[in-house]
Amino acid sequence: MLVYPSGIDVSSSALRHLTQQLLRHRRTIGSRWRRLSAGRQALLTLAHLRIGHTYAQLEAGFNIGTTTAYRYVIEAVELLAALAPSLADAVRIASAKAYLILDGTLLPTDRIAADRPFYSGKHRKHGMNVQVLADPFGRLLWASPALPGAVHDIRAAREHGIIDALNEADIPCWADKAYRGAGGTVRIPCWGRWETRSACQQAVNRSHARIRALVGQAVATLKSWRLLRKLRCSTTRITSLVQAVLTLHLTSSG
User: Range of 238's domain?
Assistant: First the structure.
């Protein structure tokens, strides 16, 4: 395998933050010697999450074994995931916002056709359903734990307690038709075929679409971490990966 220098489009604040967390963790567990320093382990983890490098590629680039690379990444991801904000934290921050935007996205996986719980009929592919909350400017505030792709958005929002949390905080939230029946502070477009709607309803829907379109920026922010574009790991690890990415994003943008 050929090895060459490359760049990672992640802010240095994210690298420093992860390095500090790893140093603190090593002192806590009394780790005396590692093949890589905390800074190099942080860089390895960012290469995996941001660029999607496989463990074999990390092995060649950092001159360590595949098993060691895997262990280092898992350790760093779990540390980052533990720091991710909860839904309550996100709602508390959002209380100062005029409104929020809610949407669901599918993180594709390499599941086989027999794995029906992971197959999304809407997207026609296998993956995991993740709910995203964005502020009025389309900035990512929170991402939910991952559920199988067959789970509908409204059901996922209810299972995560998003709708109840928004109602209790009395925060208006814009969402698409997938959240029909949510009620409370969740606002969806007028239902029905376009030609059967009144001129007023059509104007409302156009305004609603302009507001809700900004959530696409939050989804794009999440998927700018290339590992999440095609997940090849166990589905039980995907929630930790999403939470780790959320922590790194908020650290970089904070």
Answer: 1-83+233-254
pLDDT in tens, 14-46: 999 999 999 999 999 998 889 999 999 999 999
The DSSP annotation for 82-114 comes to: HTSPPHHHHHHHHTTSS-EEEEEEEEEB---TT
Strands 100-108 and 173-174, sheet pairing: parallel
Q: What is the pTM of this model?
A: 0.91
- Domain-embedded: residue 228: no
List b or e across 27-45, with b for residues whose CB sees 16 or more CB atoms inside 10 angstroms: eeeeeeeeebebebbbbbb
- Alpha carbon of 197 to those of 144, 177, 194, 209: distances in Å? 34, 15, 5, 15
Closest by CA to 125, choosing from 8, 229, 2, is 229
- pLDDT tens per residue, range 155-165: 999 999 999 99
Do residues 128 and 249 share a domain? no
Please count the structural domains in the chain: 2
